[in-house]
Amino acid sequence: MPKNGRHVRIAPSLLAADLLNLQKEIEMLTSAGADWIHLDIMDGHFVPNLSFGSDFVRHIRAVSSLPIDVHLMIAPTDAFIDQFAIAGASCLTIHPEAGYHTHRSLQKIKDHGIKAGLALNPGTPIQVVVSLLDMLDLVLIMTVNPGFGGQKFITSPLEKLKELRALIDAKNLPILIEVDGGINDQTAPDVLKAGADVLVVGNYIFSKDHPVSVQVYRSRIESLGKK
Ligand code: DX5
Ligand code: ZN
What we know:
Helix 2 (54-63) packs parallel to helix 3 (78-87). This protein is an alpha/beta fold. Helices cover 34% and strands 18% of the residues. D-xylitol-5-phosphate binds next to strand 2, strand 3, strand 8 and helix 8.
């Protein structure tokens, strides 16, 4: 448990999972203590990569009761909110950089009765969040430029993270801070110390330098500070 006794949650990003054995991966991650499933949705427009559609959420929901934390790296966003919510997303996180009417997009998510999150690219200032605090259940601090797993951790967003932690604590807001990109056993301690509640982890969890097992997944999850 990190300082201040915050409960650390680990959200493996399936982008890095063995996609030909996804159900098995999800079952092993669940047994290994994963808290959420992070699903990166990429459209080849907002980010230079393509990944999954809302059918993936539907199939994952059919085999897992873990919260499905959907990270929408798509522009425009609004046209897809309904289908991801109906498919079973627990939380839909959008990028303010992807559209013009962020408040309306967040309202559209909340109208489905699910959690609403806002993801900030490394270059996006924390001020974007201030006028939307009453709409948010989660803020996702990107520590890589979105589009790919396995990238190098960018340290500058740590300042933004500390600022956001202080703001949320000062106002006693029910908002979780999630950090996404380049998280591993080396970078996690600084991220937790800066105030993160949820860590998204892709390549560090799924790297296949060991035969895949619940024990390997559990030891990697625990190496991130989750006790
Ligand atoms: C990047 C995604 C991240 C990524 C994390 O655009 O939003 O969730 O999959 O992967 P790692 O942990 O390998 O950086
Ligand atoms: Zn992500």
